[in-house]
Amino acid sequence: MSDRRPHMLERPVIREKFRTQLRSRLMTEAAVVLTPRRRTAFFAQLWLRPALAAVLIGVLVVGGATNAAASSQPGEPLYGLKRVSEDVQVALTFDDVARMQLLSDLTDRRLDELAKIAGENPSAAPTATAEYADAVERFANAVDKLRDADAADTRDAAQAVADAAREKHIAVLDALKEKLPDSARPSIDRVIERENQREGAAPADQPKQNEDGQGRTTPRPANPTPQRATIRPTPRPATPRPTERN
Amino acid sequence: MTPNRQKDDTVRPGGATEEDASLAVRAGKGDAAAFGALYDRHVGAVYRYVYYRVRNDADAEDLVSDVFMRALRAIPRYEPRQAFLAWLYRIARNAVIDRARRSRVQISFEDALAHPGADQVVEPDAGLLALSDKETVRQALTRLTPLQQEIIVLRFVEGYSTEEIASLVGRREGTVRGIQFRALEALRSLIPSREALA
User: Buried b / exposed e across A163-188, counting CB within 10 Å, b at 16+?
Assistant: First the structure.
């Protein structure tokens, strides 16, 4: 903060009347927008109860195995079941923003697994790295999709989640790569390098034309390569996925 | 409405972050009063942010209204890992850009460089802003790119440091310095000096 300088342009002051009126309007709107929606009376319908009971039993049976799989690590027999249950969860998440958040969480989970593998079972590190790269790819695609959304708040949400994920992942990967075997390091390095390259890239919500004010006077190509704003994965190594091996 | 100087209510990006985040989380869970508190804290900053980026006061007020309406709808998805002020400025940035796209009044930086005299710029001078009529500056600012406008306003209206601006706009400090330099260079070509007018 050493280079903070006094205000060189006059600071406009908002009209008090406008300020008060807008606040009042926002508070009225907030009462509607911020109120959680009431759930429908789905479970109250009698004819659905037998079907729901059957589904519940099925869920309990599958859930038992899924719980056992939840703590499995890449390379373990139940890990495939864990991944399938996650895929189902993603497929059943219909809201785009919620799906992107879920994919971000799953990417975090893959990273946690990779960190754990690095300490406990380095031989499985290439598999864990591939799983992580796969998760990053899906997350990146989801964010890119939202960044093209018409709604500004959707774009904001995508950018916020992507920024938060990038910061966390770079820090963890930097700390992690020294612990990994040589066979897994190139993939990690490529992911980190991608992230570092991307950090200087322009957000997609900025105008495409000379948005960083670099003073470019030559026209851009008609179809410039789009800049990805999220973590890009490295190509997957040839290591088979656990489900394929088991 | 006439802009004038007032007490410095600038919120530093690193200051009150936790309190803002806490209020935002509460607002996202349905606490309207918490959203009201965030409005009270930041409405002035948002107004100043948009003021120099549009051509008149009515447009600035419309934009402030738009920004907080968008923030209200988006706040249930606010991530406390991100500074609230940076989040709010991002919404304001998008609102300004969307409005400009609709009205098509934004002029590209290439156009600014093509302005007569642009190639004669030798040394940009930030003091130019202090010496120029505010309406002249305002009109000139609307001819910069959105990012240049943003950085000039954050720097010379809000008084943020380059480091703080970098964190707010998500760019490297060196990039921000470069954009600021070129923005001042463009402004110098767009704002006639007093000597020239005399």
Answer: bbbbeebbeebeebbeebeeebbebb
Between chains, do A152 and B70 touch, taking CB under 8 Å as contact?
A: yes
Angle at the Cα of A203 (from B170 to A219), degrees rounded to 5? 120
ipTM for this prediction: 0.71
Scanning every residue of chain B, which has its alpha carbon at the shortest distance from the alpha carbon of A220? Answer: B110
State the fold for domain B107-198. Answer: Arc Repressor Mutant, subunit A (1.10.10)
Cβ of B94 and A11 within 8 Å? no
Hey, where are the domains in chain B?
A: 16-105, 107-198
CA distance A236 to A138: 13
| Chain A residues whose beta carbon lies within 8 Å of the beta carbon of residue B87 | 156, 160
Q: Which pLDDT tens digits describe chain A residue by residue (246 residues)?
A: 445 555 677 788 899 999 999 999 999 988 888 876 555 555 556 667 777 788 888 878 777 766 777 778 887 777 887 888 888 888 888 888 888 888 888 888 888 888 888 777 777 777 888 888 788 878 888 887 777 777 777 777 777 777 777 777 777 777 777 777 777 777 777 766 666 655 544 444 444 444 444 444 334 444 444 444 444 444 444 444 444 444
In CATH terms, is domain B16-105 a member of 1.10.1740.10?
yes
